[in-house]
Amino acid sequence: MKHPDSEQPGTWRGRFKDAFFGLQCRATCGVVSLTFAMVALVCWLFVGMSSNLAGRLQRQQCAQLSAVLAQAAANAMEHRDARALDTLANQFTGSDSLLFVTFFDAAGQVVASAEVDSARLRRTGPQEVALVSGGTLGTPVFVPARDGGDAYLDVTYPINKWLELDRGEVQDAEPSPPRRTELLGYVRMGLNVERSLHELSTSMDLVSGTAILIAIVTVPLAFFIVRHVVEPTNELSRVTDAFASGNLSARSGVRRRDEIGKLANAFNHMADLHERNHNQLVALNAELEERVSRRTQQLRELASRDPLTGLYNRRHFNEVLTRRLAEARRYDTPLSCLMLDLDDFKGTNDTHGHQVGDELLVLTGLTVTSQLRAADVAARFGGDEFVVLLPQTTSQRARTLSERIAEKLAAGVREQLPHVRLTLSIGISSLQNVDSDDPDDLIRAADRALYAAKSEGKNRIVTAAVGAS
Fold this sequence. Notes:
This protein is an alpha+beta fold. The chain contains 13 helices and ten strands.
């Protein structure tokens, strides 16, 4: 049986019940407030972390893309090839990723430029960021959207040419001296971040609203949502850090249809775009390097050739002679040298003219090369003198070859220039006859043998005496 005053207000039981009820309410409110605070803190951390990661990734992508673009344009900028720069600019503005690409020379004058949409670019206004403004050179600058334009990252990167140190600087420098550069110009580009900002903002709003709604509905579910959001975010953060560290194949494994999934899909899309652009730049750089290599080889080949006869020049012959002589001494193999001279060439040149003289020189070069092996080297030594290096050839075989060359040349002159009378004198030297390791001694011995052939009446072949040097 209840006491009549047990639960009445003002009694000690009523006061205890009211106090317990108030404490329970305050505890519940505290738990809910703590939950709301934790949810708000998690949302704030999530928004800040995702924004920082996305912004850092976009700036790194923009800086890397501008650096690679500057490297790819260095050769064209050095040669002031506006057409190549226009082509390069249009290639990279073929999508909405780059709003504009502009190449400037070192004085700040525009050399080439391309943009996706002229009207949108005028609303965006790339002129708001200076070409070179102190520490902003090479650093992306965020330009907010205005008047219907797009927000973008504006970056200006120098286009440099690496200069090789001369020999004196290399000797006086430290073990690893810094290489000097020459400023060729600048490349300026605008990376569109409007789509990424919009997707990121939408995702953040949805995530925040969902988290607050779940916290209001139930406290346990709020903790579950926090855990459900933080874990994939951490996974996306790890993937983003791996991608920013250079692993371009890193992709988020989050496969969801909520805001986190959208953010992961946006990151994967941005990573795919960056990797594709990077691969295009790598392929373009490889192609440019291949072209430069081929052109360098062509120029090197042209520099080692006589322009009239197509034979090697004297400088190249001396380089080959040094290597072949060292090989012959090392492996104890024979090596012979022929010195050829057209008899009375000056008189023939004066009588029939320089054109006929040039034809005789060309015919001689063609005749000599037609009788040689792939390992043999023929060169025009000067004027009407020719020299031939015959690896793994004795003096006897060299004499047989000399006789064949003289016969072929005489037949060619009779066939092509019947009104010209021309003979050939040849001097032969060989390592078996020359006791010296000096390459010049082998040539001098052949030259003395040629002089002997001239002295004995011309139109003959003379082998250097044993021991000649």
